[in-house]
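Page 37, continued from 36.
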């Protein structure tokens, strides 16, 4: 090989120099994703003319982000959330036809293994000041009620914490439930009217939000994971209409179609009632 044929690293030819090293046997998808990542990453570094000091700060930030992670805390997902990447990946991978219920971010507080409960169960185990009835119907795109739909729900308590954030303080599975629809496709359960809360902000991601002049709050919401064989699983929330943080959710999870009514109830078993219907999209049909 002559010296002219070697793509030595230069500022101008940096992308080509790095991408030329990808081997012929590399998996095609990996080669595509990594070569495009290098392309955009180098363009970014050139665009902002990154200084040595800024590069060092970035390395330190990523190091601390990794050090914050363990089996209960995932600071990298939080970083992805506040940068809008989680919502973007979700949007690209869950395109649905008009009328189907939209997805939003899963978040870190879902728990597997919550037992199935009879419809109507009160999932709040630490005393609700603002009890709320959640109800609705699950249908297909043609409006036909769907039987055998698993509805997995979770929310914070009235202090703004999930049970898993306060082990030993809140009862296990507080504000969590799993329900399965009958032939009429209906669901109903009691919980609390959720409250807005800050995402975990005691780590590097919280510091970044602070430096950017961003608050860490999420508008009040109830999480739903709605699943049935043959349909796209809906991972979503219903948001409390009128919440002060709807327009500035720290993780960009709000969609207009997911803002639900929370109506005051006079003389009922609960103070509030929120009705939200879910429409499931058949799997592999966009
Ligand atoms: C949540 O809604 O539970 C959540 C979502 C993203 C980051 C943190 C919390
Ligand atoms: Fe949440």
């Amino acid at each position: 090989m002559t010296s002219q044929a070697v793509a030595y690293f230069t500022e101008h030819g940096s992308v080509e120099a790095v991408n030329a090293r990808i081997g012929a046997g590399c998996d095609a998808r990996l080669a595509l994703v990594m070569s495009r990542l290098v392309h955009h990453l180098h363009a970014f570094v050139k665009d902002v003319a990154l200084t040595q000091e800024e590069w060092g700060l970035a390395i330190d930030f990523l190091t601390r982000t990794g050090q914050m992670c363990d089996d209960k805390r995932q600071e990298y997902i939080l970083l992805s959330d506040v940068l809008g990447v989680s919502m973007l990946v979700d949007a690209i991978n869950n395109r649905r036809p008009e009328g189907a219920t939209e997805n939003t971010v899963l978040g870190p507080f879902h728990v597997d293994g919550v037992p199935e409960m009879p419809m109507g169960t009160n999932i709040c185990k630490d005393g609700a000041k603002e009890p709320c009835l959640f109800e609705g119907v699950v249908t297909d795109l043609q409006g036909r009620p769907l039987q055998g739909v698993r509805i997995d729900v979770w929310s914070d308590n009235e202090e703004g914490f999930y049970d898993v954030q306060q082990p030993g303080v809140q009862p296990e599975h507080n504000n969590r439930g799993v329900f399965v629809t009958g032939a009429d496709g209906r669901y109903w359960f009691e919980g609390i009217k959720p409250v807005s809360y800050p995402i975990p902000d005691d780590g590097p991601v919280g510091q970044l939000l602070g430096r950017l002049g961003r608050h860490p709050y999420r508008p009040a919401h109830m999480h739903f994971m709605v699943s049935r064989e043959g349909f796209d699983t809906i991972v979503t929330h219903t948001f409390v209409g009128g919440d002060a943080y709807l327009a500035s959710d720290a993780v960009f999870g709000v969609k207009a179609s997911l803002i639900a009514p929370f109506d005051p109830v006079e003389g009922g078993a609960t103070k509030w009632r929120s009705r939200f219907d879910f429409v499931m999209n058949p799997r592999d049909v966009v």
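The two ends are 51 Å apart (CA to CA). Flag for discussion at group meeting. The chain has two domains: 1-50, 76-280.
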